[in-house]
Write a structure and sequence with these properties.
mainly beta, five-stranded antiparallel β-sheet, 26 strands, 2% helix
Length: 368
């Protein structure tokens, strides 16, 4: 069946565009794919620069960097350190990952920061999230402000009609990144003052045992939907829907994914919904591929295509992608054109080159 969109470049299937070459520098980077378009043609793309030694590259032991494009993503600047993250790493108390950003108004970027233990093998335990502001398109940044008093991870943030909506999984992850205690809950926070303060709007009525990751988006009829990953059923996302802006939620429903899904990222681009993340497999220790689904209604997905297939072996030999290679393809997305110019969908993800050591790649999507 012919797809209603195309992946650019068309003549290089399953490749994408190499955005950050960690391999040449002996580095790695998994979390931290915050993206923001803050003015016409102007984009900031964040990524992590971390050790390739600790846990074979699957770790947060490093800092955040970002690159800037002023021509709609055709070219990118040299990397710049995010000072808050870099100084936190040097202090050795905790490290910083920035997975999401929103832009309430032109030039104003609100950046959401996950704080991780500097002593962690990977990232856990998680501390209370923080928020940074830039009013000059990322040339300078504010001091961090507290997001909430709950340790956890911000899995999604969206801006609509003067309100910032943020999904946090309140779980300190001392035991696991998936829920394992009744106090582990998903909360929807909102900000009506441009991201300077946040209030709890609701707690999602979901069983969180074995749940992790999450995403939010608006359905065609304007209702808000939340998607949550279930480690015990990678074919079906747990979903609940709100018809009053997140004050109350429906009962649980499921959204089926033929190639499975981990770390789901969902976005509406023009008249289509896109879902991307890691495909699943029976043995979670084995590498997964990078899968992309599309839908007309945000619930019923096609069979999916592979944006990137993990090779059976990498530069390190037959065992180079076993088993930590299963942890690549953390990702995020951005629809460009809000302030003018072409509307395109940018997908950014980490891509294993050896064991769990990753580069960063871009894929551009255009509807037909």
């Amino acid at each position: 069946m012919k797809l209603p969109y195309q992946v650019i470049p068309i003549n290089v299937p399953n490749e994408g565009q190499l955005f950050v070459d960690h391999k040449s520098q002996g580095r790695s980077g998994h979390l931290g794919h915050a993206l923001a378009e803050y003015a016409p043609g102007s984009i900031l793309a964040f990524y992590s620069n971390c050790s390739d030694k600790r846990n074979r590259g699957h770790n947060g032991f490093g800092w955040m960097e970002y690159r800037r494009s002023n021509d709609y993503g055709k070219s990118w600047s040299e990397p710049k350190n995010l000072d808050y993250s870099y100084k936190s790493f040097l202090d050795g108390i905790y490290t910083i990952s920035c997975e999401k950003a929103v832009v309430p108004e032109e030039g104003h970027i609100v950046l959401f920061c996950l704080r991780n233990s500097a002593n962690a093998i990977g990232w856990e335990p998680w501390l209370e999230p923080t928020v940074l502001h830039s009013k000059d398109g990322g040339l300078s940044w504010s001091e961090p402000i507290a997001f909430s008093d709950a340790p956890g991870r911000i899995y999604d943030a969206k801006y609509k009609d003067g309100c910032i909506y943020v999904l946090e999984f309140c779980n300190d992850a001392k035991v696991s990144f998936v829920g394992n205690d009744p106090c582990h809950v998903y909360r929807l926070y909102v900000s009506l003052d441009g991201g300077y303060s946040f209030q709890i709007r609701s707690e999602l009525p979901l069983d969180t045992q074995g749940r992790g990751y999450g995403a939010i988006e608006w359905l065609p009829d304007g209702r808000l939907i939340a998607y949550v990953y279930n480690i015990n059923d990678e074919y079906n996302l747990d979903c609940c829907i709100s018809d009053d802006g997140g004050h109350t939620w429906s009962e649980l429903i499921h959204s089926y994914c033929a190639k499975r899904i981990r770390n789901p990222q969902v976005v509406k681009y023009k008249d289509l919904y896109f879902l991307h993340g890691r495909s699943g497999c029976v043995d979670r220790s084995l590498p997964s591929d990078f899968v992309l689904y599309h839908s007309k209604d945000g619930l019923n997905w096609d069979d999916g295509i592979l944006l990137r297939k993990t090779p059976s072996s990498g530069d390190g030999g037959s065992d180079s992608l076993k088993p930590s290679g299963a942890s690549s393809y953390y990702s995020n997305n951005l629809v460009t054109g809000r302030f003018g110019g072409p509307q395109r969908l940018l997908i950014q993800g980490s891509d294993a080159y050896e064991m769990a050591r990753t580069n960063i790649r871009h894929w551009w999507i255009e509807t037909l």
